[in-house]
Amino acid sequence: MALTNETIKLKLIEKFGEQVLNFEEPYGLLTFEAPKENNLKVLQFLYDDAELGFTFLTDLTAVHYPTLKGRELAVVYHLHNLPANIRLRFKVYTDIETPDVYTATRLFESANWMERETFDFFGINFVGHPNLKRILNVEEMDYFPLRKEFPLEDQSRRDKDDEMFGRGGSIW
Amino acid sequence: MAHVNDTASQFPGQVHETPGGGIVLSKLDDVINWARSNSLWPLTFATSCCGIEMMAVASAKYDFSRFGFEVARASPRQADVIIIAGTIVNKMAPVLKRLYDQMPDPKYVIAMGACAISGGPFFYNTYSVVKGADHIIPVDVYVAGCPPRPEALLHALISLQQKIKNGLTREQIKTGKE
Ligand code: SF4
Questions:
Q1: What is the ipTM of this complex?
Q2: A88 and A28 in contact (C-beta within 8 Å)?
Q3: Is the beta carbon of B120 within 6 A of some atom in ligand 1?
Q4: What DSSP string runs through A22-74?
Q5: With respect to CATH, is domain B28-175 assigned 3.40.50.12280?
Q6: Could you state, in order of their start, the residue ranges of all structural domains in chain B?
Q7: What digits encode the pLDDT tens for the residues A56-105?
Q8: Which residue in A122, A133, A137 has the most chain B C-beta atoms within 10 A of its own C-beta, making it the best mutation to test that interface?
Q9: Residue A137 domain flag
Q10: pTM to 2 decimals?
Q11: Is A118 inside any structural domain?
């Protein structure tokens, strides 16, 4: 039987029960969430289970949701089962004050620099990462540029018309 | 700065006909500058989209070898001119400086495109882009454009040649003597 989103979801619920939640399927991509303490358990289960076999980490990044108090930062894992050619998206949320998430480097070698990049841009502290330092930005940088703490544009500018940039109406 | 004269592309000096041959009168400095300007080897250095345009200029259709930019060298130690083709980010800045320092004198710099001139499209609201390569190394010729047309880069290369032929080295300009 081919692997479907429904089977994956049932297997996850069977194994983790209440610990996996918020299942969605935007554009057919199975998306779900787990508490951040359990991220490695879930990844390991997805990796080890003979039928699931999500052995390829396509992408690892983060998202900043400034309005979700207490769970501002989401770490997003994109996994791929190559033989069945099926993908899923797995999120864990963390407080921006204590952005500590366990590293996936023991499971996926490729997580090494993706986690460094995520640390560089969002300041997620990957606990247990072998070499967690900035990778793309200069080392002296003392902030995390992709957090939504910064205005997108210099607010004093009057020479740019939003209409020309596909962002709604004119600023005037 | 010396003025640009029309004879910049010709051999400097006068030929005096004598029976059975001729004598050339010239200044050694002029001959050296003439030789230098006609064999400027660029460093292979491209950091973003302008680099694609620079490669087009090196390719058969535009072919900057015609003007003496014979081969792009992969080592700064063999290069005479560095064409800064693309965005310079903060992390690249020390590398660019080091490459420049490794080039033997005399060395020349062309800033190609808006990014290399001023940060270009990334001038505002950036956390990573250097606002002009001339914050890091001195620039001889600027080429406007995003990216500049190949013809514009050829024009810049020829302008650099004229600058060398007509005039003074950067050190001479700095110390104020010929
Ligand atoms: S000037 Fe324009 S084309 Fe050139 S590197 Fe910058 S963005 Fe790219």
A1: 0.72
A2: no
A3: yes
A4: EEE-GGG-EEEEE-GGGHHHHHHHHHH-TTT---EEEEEEEEE-TTSTT--EE
A5: yes
A6: 28-175
A7: 999 999 999 988 888 999 999 999 999 999 999 999 999 999 999 999 99
A8: A137
A9: yes
A10: 0.79
A11: yes
